[in-house]
UniProtKB/TrEMBL annotation:
Domain of life: Bacteria
Organism: [Bacillus] enclensis
Cross-referenced Pfam families: SnoaL_3 (PF13474)
InterPro entries hit by this protein: NTF2-like_dom_sf, SnoaL-like
Protein name: SnoaL-like domain-containing protein
SnoaL-like domain span: 9-135
Length: 147
């Protein structure tokens, strides 16, 4: 099923960063369990299962490619709790967008993330993901630039 194993939870985060930067949907999706359940802030309440998640991810990466945008991803404030077969991670993930071949930053946002992972056949897979932004209570809009 999987050609390469992700042996540590930290490797999941590194794979996440590289796959987003390279706009590699195949590598990105290999980190997720087939029954993944995602709460995300991409305009829908939730995403159930790898097929639904694949549609979102491929759309995201294709939009980046069409626009010539590259995302540099950093992961901060990482807290990992794990036992033999289950892990829980919370962190802040910053996405900084650049035009391909340029060092000029176009935009940036930081989301709060929580991941639930399980070890399957020796590889860590994300089974649950929740990303969020705080909202401004005066206008109800997401606060993208707190960091």
């Amino acid at each position: 099923m999987m050609s390469e194993k992700i042996g540590t939870v930290q490797e999941v985060l590194e794979t996440y960063k590289k796959a987003v930067n390279e706009r590699d949907s195949g590598r990105f999706l290999k980190m997720y369990a087939s029954d993944v359940h995602i709460y995300d802030c991409w305009g829908s309440w939730e995403c159930k299962g790898i097929d639904a998640w694949r549609d979102n991810v491929c759309g995201w990466f294709n939009d980046l490619k069409e626009n010539g945008d590259v995302l540099k991803v950093s992961v901060e404030d990482i807290v990992i709790e794990e036992n033999t077969n289950l892990a829980f991670v919370h962190c802040a993930i910053t996405y900084a967008a650049y035009k391909e071949g340029s060092d000029e930053k176009l935009r940036q946002m930081t989301n709060r993330f929580t991941f639930g992972l399980k070890r399957v056949n020796g590889s860590w897979l994300i089974t649950h993901e929740h990303s969020s932004l705080p909202i401004n209570m005066e206008d109800g809009k997401g606060m993208f630039d707190l960091r």
